[in-house]
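Quick one, probably user error.
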């Protein structure tokens, strides 16, 4: 007999202090186990190439020796992947059967308009996530698989969905709506939802703390620059605009995604090039962006090629930076007053040339980068603008897993 986590199990939930965070992709599962008493990590892991003969699990305990452990060999499906991860955690004394485990938090990419907060997963919640598959066909099915597998492993434990789109549900209608026939848009849920919301929420809040000011008083432009990239305008802790739209394709130039294109490009490719809808989908999502422009989607390699005078890499970099500048300027206008522009995620945190180039020539907006500060590599939040700058420029490492764990724990523990 399973325990209802909202009744008989509530005492153990309230006494527990660990949260397992799961990020289930189509062929991978990332996981972290956190102790919410001090927000520390106990273990991290990645299972990749699920369903292939070359499946690989890398598990890193962050207590004891801290030495990573790796196993290879076919892992058939997500159920086997999670069971393998559970075995590794158990070997460190951190098993999923522990009474100290309070909940499992799941990253869910698309929550539509219905889910603006972290949500305990019920049958009805899961059905709604399934109903959103047409607007997130690459992401929500994998998230659903991870949820169902975790439910099977611990049916007595609260499972919480934390949605990438939730932070952006505060956008006003004039920012969220596309200018298309409103009845058609409503019938098919066509609007701008935004993504990377857990990152934008975490980073905007940490930026306010870095400035020593209340979140409610700070206006921030957040630039989440990884293989996927998005910008947001955050006013007093609330998102008022973001670059991704119905899907994560819209907006900035990304590793393999085009970002903004004229919608008629799709019709042109269909009529003139004879491409199918699926072929165009693959082109825009997987063969565009930096990789489409120069054959590389690793900014470190692109910068090496730029420094060597490679023309295609230089063009790709210039297009990437041009798009960034457009969004920084646009979001400065949307906010009216900008207190900080903040860079985060893999490229944003680690590429000094990107940060420098993105703000070059924007001194009229009060934006400037101190070259010496910008060159420093650090895992800590930091300012890279000169003393006395009108607008702060910051680098704030994102921590989406900690954000998911915190939202999950707060929901089940209160």
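Nope, works fine. Designed sequence:
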């Amino acid at each position: 007999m399973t325990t209802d986590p909202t009744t008989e199990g509530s005492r153990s939930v309230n006494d527990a202090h660990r949260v397992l965070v799961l990020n289930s992709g189509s062929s991978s599962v990332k996981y972290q186990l956190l102790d919410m008493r001090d927000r520390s990590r106990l273990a991290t892991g990645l299972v990749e190439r699920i369903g292939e003969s070359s499946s690989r699990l890398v598990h890193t305990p962050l207590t004891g020796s801290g030495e990573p452990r790796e196993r290879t060999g076919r892992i058939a499906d997500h159920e086997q992947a999670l069971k393998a991860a559970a075995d590794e955690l158990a070997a460190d004394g951190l098993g999923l059967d522990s009474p100290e485990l309070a909940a499992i938090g799941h990253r869910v990419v698309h929550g539509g308009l219905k889910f603006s907060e972290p949500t305990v997963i019920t049958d009805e919640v899961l059905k709604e996530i399934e109903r959103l598959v047409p607007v997130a066909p690459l992401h929500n099915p994998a998230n659903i698989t991870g949820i169902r597998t975790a439910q099977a492993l611990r049916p007595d434990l609260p499972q919480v969905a934390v949605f990438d789109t939730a932070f952006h549900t505060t956008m006003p209608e004039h920012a969220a709506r596309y200018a298309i026939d409103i009845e058609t848009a409503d019938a098919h849920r066509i609007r701008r939802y935004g993504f990377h919301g857990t990152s934008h929420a975490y980073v905007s809040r940490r930026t306010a703390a870095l400035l020593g000011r209340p979140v409610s008083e700070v206006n921030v432009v957040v630039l989440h620059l990884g293989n996927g990239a998005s910008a947001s305008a955050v006013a007093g802790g609330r998102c008022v605009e973001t670059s991704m739209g119905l899907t994560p394709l819209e907006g900035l130039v990304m590793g393999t995604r085009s970002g903004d294109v004229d919608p008629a490009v799709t019709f042109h490719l269909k009529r003139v090039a004879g491409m199918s809808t699926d072929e165009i989908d693959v082109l825009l999502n997987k063969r565009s962006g930096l990789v489409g422009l120069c054959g590389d989607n690793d900014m470190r390699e692109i910068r090496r090629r730029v420094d060597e005078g490679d023309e295609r890499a230089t063009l790709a970099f210039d297009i990437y930076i041009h798009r960034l500048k457009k969004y920084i300027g646009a979001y400065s206008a949307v906010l009216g007053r900008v207190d900080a522009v903040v860079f985060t995620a893999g490229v944003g945190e680690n590429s000094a040339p990107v940060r420098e180039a993105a703000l070059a020539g924007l001194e009229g907006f009060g934006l400037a980068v101190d070259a010496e500060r910008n060159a420093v590599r650090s895992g800590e939040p930091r300012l890279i603008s000169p003393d006395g700058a009108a607008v702060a420029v910051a680098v704030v490492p994102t921590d989406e897993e900690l954000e998911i764990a915190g939202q999950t724990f707060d929901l089940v523990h209160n």
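The longest helix spans residues 311-335.
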